[in-house]
Design brief:
About 5% of the residues lie in helices and about 45% in strands. It is mainly beta and about 350 residues long. A hairpin with a 6-residue loop joins strand 7 and strand 8.
């Protein structure tokens, strides 16, 4: 267990593992964020030892980072981390230099979630307290699109994800809504292509405004929805209700592509019980291959499910405990193969 030095807020809000192409790497690079610092570590799988690589400390002592996300630097082809938090500024940082490369400025309030495009590693999605989502090109630093407005979220957007084919964004928030946005429209595809060649010397970038989601529901949860993830064509979402729900938009035999915007049907497939998980800003994690899911509790435990069974009755839960872990598990990160799990909590651990 690692104990970090945080002056004011002891919460380590997020932890993320860098996922190289190796299925079983010898060493795992990971990062954690909390207060105004971002810490980089390397975990040796064979020995279980963890080495601190470096710490990025923001110049603003009032900053408080809530989230981070890994990608590959499009210029140097090295690991690159995006971080965001209270001040609404997204920074990209090299883990080996602890200096930020770019700053993405545009949100009017704090950043609650970050997610990189699965196929275009320079495209970043952000979710904010300002009720909107934004799509960025981290290389050219332009804002490609803003999702919100007329039928967008009416309160903080707490979590967001992009499906593995890079077609749809899913978002959720304090307004209890879960919304799906199409990013394969001609206008957005053109904006993404334009952002790659954009030169800001002469004119501002024509950011696309998306006011209408392709699907919207608040029939899954009755409280804040603080974490949502794509699970193939299905969806996993969590609220403050001691469970994670697996569901799909529309009826069981309806495809997302064929749904009209007025379709309000949802089909719930499974409910994963998670007692002592009744507060918000507690995120669950799913491994890249969708074989393992895990979530922390308010008293330091971690629930783990195997998801690769064909029969939902076989989704047995196991509970991981550590006598030194007593706080609220804020975030869970899983390695590429789902064999290694790292957590962060509200006690600077």
């Amino acid at each position: 267990m690692i104990k970090e030095e945080h002056e004011d807020d002891p919460n380590v809000y997020d932890v993320k593992i860098y996922r190289p192409n190796e299925e079983c790497p010898n060493n795992i690079l990971f990062a954690s964020v909390g207060s105004n610092q971002c810490s980089f570590y390397e975990y040796t799988v064979a020995t279980g030892e963890v080495e601190s690589i470096d710490i990025y400390l923001d110049a603003d002592p009032q900053e408080n980072f809530f989230v981070c996300a890994w990608t590959i630097d499009p210029d140097r082809l090295e690991p690159l981390l995006a971080i965001g938090g209270l001040k609404g500024i997204i920074r990209t940082i090299s883990p080996f230099k602890s200096q930020f490369k770019n700053a993405l400025i545009g949100h009017g309030a704090s950043i609650n979630d970050l997610k990189f495009h699965p196929k275009k590693n320079f495209i970043l999605l952000s979710a904010s307290k300002d009720h909107t989502l934004r799509l960025w090109n981290i290389a050219s630093t332009v804002c490609i699109g803003i999702f919100g407005g007329a039928e967008g979220h009416t309160d903080q957007v707490l979590s967001a994800d992009i499906d593995l084919k890079g077609r749809y964004i899913i978002s959720c928030g304090i307004d209890h809504f879960i919304k799906i946005w199409n990013i394969q429209t001609p206008k957005l595809k053109n904006a993404i292509d334009t952002s790659e060649e954009y030169d800001n010397t002469y004119k501002s970038f024509p950011t696309v405004s998306v006011n209408f989601p392709d699907f919207s529901t608040r029939d899954i949860h009755t409280n804040y929805v603080d974490c949502v993830r794509w699970f193939g064509n299905l969806i996993l979402s969590k609220s403050c209700e001691n469970c994670i729900i697996e569901w799909k938009p529309g009826l069981i035999d309806e495809n997302l592509e064929s749904l009209s915007r007025t379709n309000k049907n949802v089909f719930i497939l499974n409910q994963f019980e998670a007692k002592e998980c009744d507060i918000w800003f507690v995120r669950f994690g799913v491994d890249f291959s969708h074989r393992v899911m895990a979530v922390g509790t308010t008293n330091g435990k971690v629930y783990v499910w195997k998801l690769d069974s064909q029969n939902s009755n076989d989704f047995n839960r196991i509970t991981l405990t550590n006598p030194k872990s007593k706080g609220i598990i804020r975030s869970v990160a899983l390695s590429l193969n789902g064999n290694d799990l790292i957590t962060s909590n509200n006690l600077a651990q």
